[in-house]
């Protein structure tokens, strides 16, 4: 796991963060719905990204999100997440 803050990129806009995650071969987990709009635009324009997992703050507990993220990480390869958006809870 790597947060944008730990990576020194906390002040970057969403598109740069999604590009950075893709360059690092990482999937983004977010509760920011702006990423859904961005991912949809990238899918439509066939722009590659490494994947996105979205959870609405009011629809999943922290424990539930962690459980589902561990499940995704253990069952899916990075290639399977490419250009994909998953929603929590599963």
Short description:
The chain is of the alpha/beta class and 90 residues long.
Coarse morphology: globular
Please describe the biggest sheet, giving its number of strands, its sense, and whether it closes into a barrel. Answer: 3 strands, parallel
Order of helices and strands: HEHEHHE
Assign the structural class, choosing from mainly alpha, mainly beta, alpha/beta, alpha+beta, or little secondary structure: alpha/beta
Major beta sheet, strand line-up: 1-2-3
Regions with pLDDT < 50 over 5+ consecutive residues? Answer: none
- The structural domain count equals 1
What is the helix tally?
4
What is the percent of helical residues? 40-55%
Please give the alpha-carbon distance between the first and last residues: 20 Å
Strand content: 5-15%
The overall pLDDT average reads 97
Q: What would your notes on this structure say?
A:
With 90 residues, the protein is an alpha/beta fold. It is built from four helices and three strands; from the N terminus they run αβαβααβ. It is globular and about 30 Å long. 44% of the residues lie in helices and 12% in strands. The model has no long low-confidence stretch (mean pLDDT 97). It has one domain. It has a three-stranded parallel beta sheet with strand order 1-2-3, with helices on both faces.
